[in-house]
Task: inverse folding
């Protein structure tokens, strides 16, 4: 594991003289073999890599409809939430008009709409130029509010024009 190497001057009869005429002491060199320590380090690394349980990513389950499926829903059972490109929110309940709303007021409005009509379906229309984060926030908010029937669809040009008129 460890070797001790003594320096040999070659002439063992005469003591070596230093600068001031004093006899030099022999230097003893110690060399530690690092091979076992490297082996232990790699064994520990392999042990922790094998025994570590990686956390699975948390994901929300989304049921996608068939591509050509058409469902007729009465307009009175639909609440539409619009997310504009600047993350501003607008809401339309049934055949009513489009109203601006804040993120803080959205959840109480969703809960009251569901209490008034248990068959309500939420349509979330998101502008194509909006960031991804508001869509995820909206889906989290709908799940936290207990809404199970909702759809996320892209906003059409006529919807964007209607939003401009309601600002």
Result:
């Amino acid at each position: 594991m460890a070797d001790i190497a003594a320096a040999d001057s070659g002439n063992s009869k005469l003591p070596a003289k230093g600068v001031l005429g004093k006899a030099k002491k022999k230097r003893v060199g110690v060399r530690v073999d690092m091979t076992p320590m490297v082996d232990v380090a790699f064994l520990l690394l392999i042990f922790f890599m094998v025994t570590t349980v990686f956390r699975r990513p948390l994901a929300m389950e989304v049921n996608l409809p068939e591509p050509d499926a058409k469902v007729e829903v009465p307009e009175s059972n639909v609440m539409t939430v619009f997310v504009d490109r600047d993350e501003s929110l607008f809401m339309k309940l049934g055949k009513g008009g489009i109203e601006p709303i804040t993120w803080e007021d959205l959840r109480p409005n969703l809960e009251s709409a569901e209490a008034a009509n248990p068959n309500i379906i939420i349509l979330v229309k998101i502008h194509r130029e909006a960031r991804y984060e508001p869509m995820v926030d909206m889906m989290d908010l709908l799940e936290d509010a207990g809404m199970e029937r909702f759809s996320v669809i892209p906003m059409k040009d006529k919807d964007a024009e209607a939003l401009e008129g309601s600002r």
